[in-house]
Fold:
Amino acid sequence: MELGILLAIVGGFLDAYTFVGRGGVFANSQTGNFVLMGIEAATGEWGKAVLHAVPILAFIVGVVVAEMIKKPSMHLFIPDSERAVLILEIAVLFIIGFIPYTSPNIIVTVAVSFVCSVQVSSFRKLVGSEYNTTMITGNLRSATQKAYIAFTKRDKESALKAIQFSKVNLSFLAGAILGGLLTSFIGAKAVWIPMIVLICSVILFSVDDSDCENKNENKNAIEA
Structure:
């Protein structure tokens, strides 16, 4: 649950970062990019339409890369694909922080769309249910659906899931607010804030792995 919250904060922050500071392009919400691309194409603004098309292509490439990383044949080189994805994101965001506003925005939006795509393709389950860390439309539907079931059927499990999805949605909103504010005040280097959040996510992964190993050792000791 904690990991889902952290990744949602990153997702909201990066969308606000690219929209506010990098040319009004969404990093995560390809729906938004499709709509803006269509509007600009309809008005003959082909140059602007292309600027929204390129992040969409980067997103597609990110999905392909994520699927390749998860292949069994890659386990020899990348034994922990989810941790590898987080480290990749950290590295890319660190580099982006050095790219000034005077550089073409498309360089940054492509890179951010790519890492967001890899993230959303790698982290898709929240307590047994499908969820999204880079956009909240599906999460909002799930939260509402579970809340309705909980209210009408007095289902405690649905109520718990509604709360969990709501936490992710609010975390995304908090990330977007922070992203908008800090990008306005700090500028290009604001992207290092979600990088720090991702570092916390890697640490959380390590702690969880350690807890699992300790539980397995205790279980084996009891069985012995």
